[in-house]
Amino acid sequence: MLGYLYCMLKSRFLEILPPSVEGASLRHTCTRQLNLTVQRGVTQPATLVEDGGALITVVEGGGCGYAATSDLSRSGLREAVEKARKWAKVSGRFPLVSRYPRFSSETGEYRTPTKRPWDLSAVGGIVERLHGYSGQLFGGDSRVIQWRAGVWLVSEETEWFSTEGGHWFQQLNYGVPKALVTVSDQGKIQSRSLHGTAATAQGGLEIFDLFDVDTTIPTLREEAFQLLSAPVCPDDVRDLLLSPDQMILQIHESIGHPLELDRILGDERNFAGDSFVTLEDFGRLQYGSELLNITFDPTVSSDMATYRWDDDGRRAEKVHLIQDGRLLRGIGGVLSQQRSGVEGIASERSSNWNRAPIDRMANINLEPGQESFDALVARTERGVLMKTNCAWSIDASRNKFQFGCEVGQLIEDGQLGALVRKPNYRGVSQHFWRSLKGVGDRASMGRFGAPNCGKGEPNQVIRVGHASPWCLFDQVQVFGGQ
Amino acid sequence: MQAGFEACSALLFDQLKASERLLVRFEGEDSEMVRFNRAKVRQAGHVTQRCVLLTLVDEGRVVKERITLCESPDEDRRRLEASLSRLRTMLTIVEPDPLLCLPEPSGQSHEVSSSEGLKGPEAIAQFLQDAEREVRGADLVGFFHNGPVGRGFADSAGSMHWFSTEIVRLEWSHVLEGARALKREWGGLRWDQERIRKALHSAAQELPLLKRQPIARPPGDYRVWLAPAAHRTVWLLLSWLGLSTQNIKSGASPLQRVFRGEEELSPLLTVDGIRQRGRSPRFSDEGVLGPRSLRLIDRGRGKSSAVSLRAAREFDLAPNGGEETGKVDDVAIHPGDLPDREVLNALGTGIWVSNIWYLSFSDVSQGKVTGLTRYGCWWVENGVPIAPIETLRFDDHLRNFLGCKLERLGERADWVPTGTTYDKRFLGGCAAPGVLTSALRFTG
């Protein structure tokens, strides 16, 4: 997609910048997307996307401004540079930041290892596959009121360069297979899905195999019916065993977001909120039990938010954010690290070329422990297992939360028991992670993510990755949805 | 923007085969965006974007592509022709679509509104100066955006519609230590410094109350005044998921029981989907000219859901301008008779909820909604605000707090444009009065 544009854009851009500009960068992003869905047995109109544009960031006169444009001609870039400079002047009149970090000088190239890349010739085969899934979800049962199988595939190319000599190219391919079945009987409704929206990974068509879609989909309808006839989750306090495809939301909402440095610095207080974590907590706060180890890990190529450089051009490396339960680092790029004095990670990211980067999660993972899934169950005297997130809500400081899952299963005296439906639980982040008393081993890990984490003004939706094993929590308030 | 859209459409229509039909939907904006923290500028910039969604139909087969344009005629021509070629290739792969339903030709329309008053940098400077003067002792955090937004729809069968507007929107929070805050939001077609100053002044008057020690309230049912901003938040969620035929039929709507006649909301509640001049286009994303006002809920009962062309074909209904996404962009809830000056007395003892946050469903099929209080929410005793409350979660059925427990509605329902800016500046908004309810269940 980008190839020939690379040298042209860079030289155009650098020629246009006047000498008064202290530093600048240009990030050019192009994406191709394919969205295919079969809903209620009917192939929905296939949707393609070809999108591209550039974000120019300029530091001048003590301020910083940006301009996003899809016009990459010389005149288009010139106009964008002038707009960015205009806003740098406004920013310089009311500066929140006294000094901007030097732009990155990183160079290199990275591409997602992709076993089975897609193009339009694959569409027929994918549609046929989705129809197969659709048939399995429906099964000819009139009690099935909604059934849907789909896939969203993206290929994204970014080139980035700066006045500091930085220039790199990155191609990331990722996808999201999706499936949902909703059944209704005697006034009750129940849904079951392919991990909610969590089945997300980098790669090509091999993502279907990565999530065992072929073997998972045939089980969903039957599970939905089993849940229909199950009792509602009890309303009491008991141990809670969470699956990886629920842990991702738990990690995301009550570890990831609270550790975002720009949030702690107050930038999001008008929208996404702030955090119960303060700058003084870093290096000190016992965030969770000693079993809690949280990493920022950009190294697993198939994880949803793996990259070599963030959108500020900084090199990404694996580090611990929380180690043995103690809080070490924040989720924040170079600018937030400078503003806060706290160590962070390379995680200034933006949703697209038309948005300026802000502190975002990427791959934020809970490292595995030593216990097998069976061992976690065996030591639970009175608990409930919950899997597949279907609802989430948390307060603006990322403390009080409530989650709902598709499936619940009671655990009594170390044995898995009856299914329960509409399982929900509540907690407070500051206490919840200290109640972590069991962490599954590597064999129990699930690698998932979220394609739609929202934050920022203007709003931005970004993809993130979360890998986690099964985890056991002590004495959590659980309840049923009704 | 309009000229570019019409040129693209003409270029493509000229290249169609006799059996082909093409729909062109345009979205574009030139936006100034400024976010601020501690009354200083955090990020400021400009976004120029243009894109078209092409829907190509041939012999019952349909495919779509969204492409970004750059306003360079030669390059845009190359992109459009490449897209047409891809779409034609895709048409040879897909099967005929049994739910394909195309709009009837609907003539032409042209609606242009532009804003008046201060633009970008001057507006920001004026606002920050006024805020510093009017409200002291709190951090100022917020977001401003303005600039023209354009939407177009063209159909090779003969329709051509254009809408553009220049909505200005400003929202901000005054924040104390411990993240206690007051929020204000304002928007319209005309920069109105006087109204913004009044909003700043009212915030200044509330600040002393916000500074009092917060009170923790135990779980339970409370009398509640949901201020207009809080009520708007409920309907912004319901307008995403609750009002469309496809969501109701598939079990995804929290209002499905209302629209099936199995339960009712309060008879005081009447909700319309509206398409008002200057706020949102009359034409839907599918090119249907919907009514300016569609009665969705009538005195608590489901009257008409939003029906897209596709849903009309699937469920054998008449289309009424509903969007393919199921979202209703602009909703208006009819006001009631409770004047602002009487709200506290009418509330008596209970909770004044200014804003709510992070709404979700603990049971979507039963219309059970959970969320949290946020910003200046007050514990009120005998009509007197006492102190802010610590954050509380509520979890209750719509049929309760907007149904049998709803006592009165406020007499004002001011329209506020949406602040949603995911990938583009959305149009539409919500006009909602405040709600006095005898019981909203809080869980702690």
Describe this structure in words.
The complex is a heterodimer of chains A (482) and B (444). Chain A has helices at residues 5-16, 74-93, 123-138, 207-210, 213-228, 244-256, 261-264, 334-340, 373-378, 429-432; strands spanning 23-39, 42-43, 46-60, 63-69, 107-111, 144-162, 167-185, 188-193, 201-202, 236-242, 294-296, 319-323, 326-327, 348-349, 358-359, 364-366, 382-394, 400-412, 415-420, 423-428, 436-439, 446-455, 460-468, 471-480. In chain A, strands 1, 2, 3, 4, 5, 6, 7, 8 and 9 form a nine-stranded mixed sheet that branches. The longest helix of chain A is centred in the N-terminal third of the chain and has 20 residues, at 74-93. With 482 residues, chain A is an alpha+beta fold. The mean pLDDT of chain A is 95. In chain A, strand 6 (144-162) and strand 7 (167-185) form a beta hairpin. Chain A has ten helices and 24 strands. By secondary structure, chain B is of the alpha+beta class. Helix content of chain B is 24%, strand content 37%. Chain B has helices spanning 2-13, 73-91, 120-134, 193-210, 228-241, 245-249, 256-259, 309-315, 343-347, 398-404; strands spanning 20-37, 40-58, 61-69, 108-112, 139-146, 149-155, 160-165, 168-175, 181-188, 220-226, 271-274, 293-298, 301-302, 330-333, 350-353, 355-363, 368-374, 378-381, 384-388, 393-397, 406-409, 415-417, 429-431, 435-442. In chain B, the strands form four sheets. In chain B, strands 1, 2, 3, 4, 5, 6, 7, 8 and 9 form a nine-stranded mixed sheet that branches. In chain B, strands 19-18-15-10-24-21 form a six-stranded mixed sheet. In chain B, strand 1 (20-37) and strand 2 (40-58) form a beta hairpin. The mean pLDDT of chain B is 94. Chains A and B meet through strand 2, strand 3, strand 4, helix 2 and helix 3 of A and strand 1, strand 2, strand 3, helix 2 and helix 3 of B.
